[in-house]
# Entry
Amino acid sequence: EQYRQSIEVSVQISDSIENLDSEIKLGIYRIIEQAMLNALVHGPSTKVQVVISDEVVDLVSIVISDNGPGAILDEVSPGVGSAIIDSWVGILRGRRSIDTSPGYGYRLEIEFPRQISD
# Structure
């Protein structure tokens, strides 16, 4: 609510995501939370799109893209938000990729199995 005047957010979530384990849902929430903060604080971005889907069998995909200024990826120093995202990606046994370049914003994509086992 406090950022409503600063950033426009679009969210698309597949209906079947509701059936995921609560730990997976928490991981999704925390990943999106940190990505949104990064987009707002480090962008600064005015638009963010979040898509959560499970179109690929047994995989969940989170894509978060923004219209911030972008950067040269090799010149970006990871911070606390990135560490939190990476931690959750590890817990969810997933993988992440980042696509960015100056003038084209950021695109964070994370994929992980629908079920995690110990």
The first helix runs from residue 22 to 41. The beta strands are 8-13, 47-53, 59-66, 95-100, 106-113. The mean pLDDT is 89.
